[in-house]
Write a structure and sequence with these properties.
The protein is an alpha+beta fold. The protein is built from 7 helices and 12 strands. The structure holds zinc ion.
Length: about 280
């Protein structure tokens, strides 16, 4: 069985290659997965993050869809460039997730399930995950305590830690920080209580807003695009994510982006609205 750190490294490599990218093609030989893909296509969704959870691998897609896989003895995820020859026979292929730049192929994966944030939360094996932002019984106080315990971590890193709060992907990380006027690179301990609470409330609001598009049918959103600005024009759906060099929607300053620490997840922020000081401006 692969060790946790193998899963972690695999997840990290996958995250570097796939996070923030749009799925161009999804294929699987597992009927349980293709059924979901037929109802609510994977193609067009953003891959928000790939994270390990114990010996599980979680691939989060926009529109509250999570692919949970477990490798057991023989399963593995490979990353290829489009057109590159696979190192395993086609017969061993179980899942293919393709973006413009990479093809992730899951070989001989014995356990693979699609989940929503809520159904994942109910899975006993994954109880060690943090408070699930989309769960009915989300406990904001517990999330507050979890967040505070990450004091010496950068805000942007802590927000992606699924053991603190489960559900935030790389897109929402940048959007939440912007909404709360928090610089994503400052340490959590320098935030005041109001800012911490803003982060939690905003995270919950953004994630829920994205899911409500499924209108009770159990089918997740078709576009797969998250929206945080509340605007319907697709070009205006996000505050900062993917907008490097463009004018801040609030103050007009140029949006910046930077790879966040070792894991190379790109973070976007407005240097004027989100200054690098402990006394960031308060939210409205
Ligand atoms: Zn700004």
């Amino acid at each position: 069985m692969p060790e946790g750190d193998t899963i972690f490294r695999a997840a990290r490599a996958m995250n570097q290659a796939l996070a923030g990218k749009i799925v161009t093609r999804f294929e699987s030989v597992l009927p349980k997965l293709t059924r979901v893909d037929e109802d609510a296509p994977l193609a067009g969704r953003i891959i928000e993050s790939v994270t390990p959870a114990g010996k599980w691998n979680l691939i989060r897609f926009s529109g509250d869809l999570i692919l949970l896989t477990h490798m057991r003895m023989n399963g593995s995820w490979h990353l290829y460039r489009p057109g590159e020859r696979w190192q395993r026979p086609r017969n061993d292929m179980r899942i293919v997730i393709e973006t413009a730049d990479f093809v992730a192929v899951g070989f001989n994966i014995p356990v693979a399930e699609f989940h929503t944030g809520e159904s994942l939360h109910r899975k006993p094996e994954l109880r060690s995950l943090g408070e699930d932002l989309l769960s009915e019984d989300f406990d904001a106080e517990m999330a507050f305590e979890n967040l505070k315990s990450q004091g010496n971590e950068e805000v942007g890193i802590a927000l992606l830690n699924q053991r603190v709060m489960a559900g935030i992907g790389n897109v929402y990380k940048s959007e939440i920080c912007f909404a709360c006027k928090v610089n994503p690179f400052i340490l959590l301990e320098s935030l005041n209580e109001e800012q911490l609470r803003c982060v939690i409330e905003t995270a919950q609001r953004f994630l829920k807003a994205n899911v409500s598009q499924k209108s009770g049918s159990g089918i997740v959103t078709y576009t797969g695009f998250g929206r945080t600005t509340g605007r319907h024009n697709p070009a205006e759906r996000l505050w900062v994510y993917g907008r490097r060099g463009l004018a801040c929607r609030r103050c007009g300053a140029k949006i910046e982006s930077k790879k966040h620490s070792h894991d190379a997840r790109v973070t976007f922020w407005c240097p004027k609205c989100q200054p690098m000081t402990a006394d960031s401006p308060q939210r409205h």
